Amino acid sequence: MTDYRSVNRANWDERAPAHAKSPDYALDRFLADPGHLSEVVRFDQPRLGDLTGLRGVHLQCHIGTDTVSLHRLGARMTGLDFSPAALAEARRLAAGTDAAVDFVEADVYDAAAVLEPGGFDLVYTGIGALCWLPDIRRWASVVAALLRPGGRLFLREGHPMLFTVDDARPDGLLTVEFPYFERPEPTVFQAPGTYVTTEETFTHNVTHEWNHGLGEVVTALLDAGFDLTMLAEHDSAPWDALPGRTERAGPGEWRLADRPWRLPQTYTLQARRRA
Description:
The protein is α/β, with parallel strands linked by helices. It has helices at residues 4-21, 27-32, 39-48, 65-72, 84-96, 111-114, 136-146, 214-223, and strands at residues 55-59, 76-81, 102-105, 120-125, 147-158, 165-166, 175-176, 187-190, 206-209, 226-234, 236-237, 246-248, 254-256, 266-273. It is an enzyme of class 2 (transferase). This is Class I SAM-dependent methyltransferase.
């Protein structure tokens, strides 16, 4: 298998500065309004509960908008990502907003080696993270290693059913084309753009990605020593996952315009590490 980390890191390194400039990430609002939260965190704020004083780590934090948002809700946050370009933007955002957030450069599978094992009350993982990882069971073991007994995982992620859909057919049908279950080899995509509004052009356009079925994610966590405490599926996503077929569904969310009940687009999961 090709070195998927290098391929994917080149893709993210090139896009991170464009994401920071895009109105979709709204970094200017973070700088102007000390109460502003990312739309991703705001969507799940009722499920997050009181974070005051919790020590949290945001895995695969990208440019840090969700990390800073969790800090603003009272958590003592660390962000971890493998992209130095993304972390440069995250650190710039934290400095500009006086947010006391630490950012660490590392692959997510190495998180327990570079952070304090058992030192966190909360592990947070946001939209579009798990698809970059080839082994969901290994990820679950890393999360377990980071959390203290009784600590909590909070995950909102693209639904694996959404990631199976091919929406590029000329007849307009949505068809199940890509793997639902984790496969040994990645699905290789080549796409010149990105998911935010930008006029930038890119040269690193190949990505290696894996899907993980909902049952695979839950079972991996159970086997890693977690108890599932919440699982909610949503008919919307915080990006326009199916352009031309969606409509706005509240701040920062899109759902299918035609019979949105046909397709789950994201899910929120919470689990606690067993004592």
